[in-house]
Amino acid sequence: MKISGVHHVAIICSNYQKSKHFYVEVLGFEIIHETFRSARNSYKLDLQVGNIQIELFSFPNPPQRFSNPEACGLRHLAFAVENIEESVNYLKSHHIEVENIRIDEITGKKFTFFKDPDNLPLEIYESSTFNLHIREYKPSDTEMIMKLFYDTVHEINIRDYTQEQVKAWAAETMDYEFWHKRLQNKSPYIAENNGEIVGFGELDPDGHIDCFYCHSQYQRKGIGSKLLKHIENIAKSREIKRLYAEVSITAKSFFQHHGFTIVKEQQVERRGVLFTNYLMEKYL
Fold first, then answer.
1. Helix 176-186 and helix 142-155, axial crossing angle in degrees, nearest 10
2. Lowest mean pLDDT among 123-137, 139-153, 217-231
3. Is residue 205 reached through a cis peptide bond, with omega within 30 degrees of 0 on the bond before it?
4. What's the Cα-to-Cα distance from 167 to each of 59, 77, 112, 270, rounded to whole Å?
5. How far apart are CA 127 and CA 148, in angstroms?
6. Are 277 and 246 in contact (CB under 8 A)?
7. Residue 67's pLDDT is what?
């Protein structure tokens, strides 16, 4: 078994509306999808911020779990923040009790604890700055985009495709003039972090999302979510009602998580090699 990372954390709450307000309005998690499962009288709320994904569940009369004294099993969740003091003041402004700030004796980083509405311990931990923003394409971006595309296919998509397939998908010898002309025509949206391109996505006039890739070294950091949200907002401003994309096996769950549905599974050919991907769509 090859585990690539933590996919999500699931939390069961006793008061759904209270916990939804806490995680969305106070902590700032983005709602990806909300489902009411009538057969179980249960809500499932998919949330995301940065690289953290939470599934918030409600069930009728769930038994309480002890937080104090500490018991065996999952201990707590820790969220990365850039400024501990500002985060503590923010939480206190929402009448949330926060412990005194401490210093991690191993890393030297600041951290502290607070609790959610069901007394679940939550930690905020000082992290390095991640300054992500979305901008428009510039001609000088071409080489960095080509490298990002190649590296992502060969380091990330290789998990779901063969070596023959990824070589056909992203050849070792890439045509700069072809890419430069293509990017100037497509005008992709660029996700940039401190001057480094960490993702790009394209939106055609008919709602087609063509290339959509995130840097192989910055997976599961919320880049794709922010980039896709930007594309959706642009589509809405242009009165595009439907988005669609040919989605890889690797990216299928990401697009599903953001409200896209599978129209059909299909076989496509590139440089004489067959691939499986999915035609997916989302109505805005």
1. 100
2. 123-137
3. no
4. 48, 40, 47, 10
5. 25
6. yes
7. 74
